[in-house]
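Listing 4. Sequential folding, example run.
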Amino acid sequence: MTAANPSRRQAASSSDMTRRRIAILISGRGSNMASLIEAARAPGYPAEVALVLSNRPDAEGLVRAREAGIEALAIDHKAYSTRESFEQALDAALRERGIEFVCLAGFMRVLTNWFVERWQGRMINIHPSLLPLFRGTHTHRRALEEGVLVHGCTVHFVVPELDAGPIVAQAAVPVVPGDTEESLAQRILVQEHVLYPQALAMICSGRARLENGRVVFSQGWGAGGALRSPG
């Protein structure tokens, strides 16, 4: 057996030091959580998933996180008399573990201004619509009712106003004849699983940053692409 190369060990250690410690907040099965965990396994990905935290002890995503070797913690919001005391426990758990950045992934709690401001610029969410269209819930139903021909998902920084933070990335899909809420949601979920890891990587690598309330990118992209529906 040969000894490990010290320079390689040092390089690997240095690389790990640059990775930002991420917590993912969930309330359910954690499908977007799983896509972030998988992406973070890739060499060179600029973030590591250090914690998965849920407000529901029975959340399926906690089991999936533990199976992936990640600490999974439940802080049951029902055990706290106020929203503020629950969020103080949440904040304490994140800080005790040295969390640097938070990803909301199906976390079904409206956060208070106190918590959002405490993590301002360090917390993102993925929303199933092309914001600023269809903020809030039942986005696919509303898109179908409005008759839009293009729908999608958005990764954005979290601000006190619901689903109103600076946009980091978006993905669009066509709405086709015969679509239901379920069929549309499934196609958009596929895009969420691609978009969220990409957006997180851009932020953690410094390729996307907040500046004066907007997201600024270190490099541009081509203007030739388009999604047309019908098309």
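-- end of first protein; second protein begins --
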Amino acid sequence: MDADERRMGRAEARGLRHAKELEGHIGILDTFTPTALGVLACASGIYTYLGVSSLLDDSGAFTFFAAISYSIAVSVGIFVFWSYLMRLLPAVKTAGARIGLMASMALGSLAIVAMSSWLNAAALAGAAAVEQHLANTVQEYQTSLERAHQVAVSAQGLELDVSRVRQSFVDLGEQEATGDLSGIAGRGAVFRVLRQKSQELETLETQIAAQDPLVDRAFAEGNAILSRMRALTVAQGSVEDRSVTFSEEAVRLAGIITQLRQLSVAPLVQRAAQDLRASVVLPELDGSSDAIRQGQQATITSVLEVLGQRAQTLEAAAQQVIEMPAPAEVGYTPISTADAVIRYASNFAPSWAGAIAIDLLPAVLVFILMVVQSAIRSGREGTRIEDSLTLAEMRAAILAIRDVEEASRPSGPVPEEYEGPPRPDRVSEGPKAVGSGPRPAG
């Protein structure tokens, strides 16, 4: 039993020495921890000021003081919040108290992110995020421009379909002129019908061909604007000034895209195909006999059937172009640096991590203190209070006892038998009875 007690005593002594060692380290760290926490809070306040300044439109004195006030409030709030947790959370012992304080720490961390971290991210990566917004807008405009040009070029391709139908009517007219179609040579009623439709198609073909240089010119101008917009995304200087110029170029490019959409001749070809089938002016039959006139009528009926088929084919080709996906409506919206870092947060994860870390880094110190304080309490567990007293604490206790003795002495004359309260250096002698001195010899 004595051996077990000696082993337990040695374990308690080792735990006590370990606890005192940790307390010494904490004492040293406490000398500069508040200063370090203040530096972190001030740094966060500076970046918060830069973020707030980017959100405020006015640059006057009132706006300056407003931004300064907000950043100071953030710095003070961060310093006080983490100072409370560094002192209180490691000191509490019950599970309920720890859970409550940790819940408060989580809620406060969310508040810090909401009032400071996103503004820090705006200051760290705001300009780059706005440039990212400009680059994405350029890509959207380029896609829309290319789509509009593709639709316009596809519509210009209908010229070949119109030419093919026109040439078929020209060939039929030549056959009719030689008598190979109706059996009657000459330029009679059938020839005039064929000639009428071939001229309509020739006019449509000329209109389509006239659009080619307009389409090419619009596409070239759009590409030139895109080049200037790309240059603005990476140019030197303030991103706000570049955004203004970028917005002006975006308006011009939007007009070019609209122009390309209007240059598409597919609706024109579709309407012409419908008119080709519906609006046929039938000439008076000019045959010299009933048999000849009946032959002309039969030939005109066949020509109208062929005309309907050609018109249907041409209309179907135009409908395919019309049903092509239209270019997306693109518009440039200026964006602030704070909104940009939120919208493109995934592209600036390091900046967000740094902005949040500068505010929430003290949480790591809180957890470190919790672990150390728990180790200190574990080392002191089971030891008596007199075993844990240091030499300085014992000296302070002795001085306190002497002060109590001085205060407890009577103010009047002291009887001879009164010797006052026992002194610490005489505790081991035991109590001494009143009048217990040497008696006179009897």
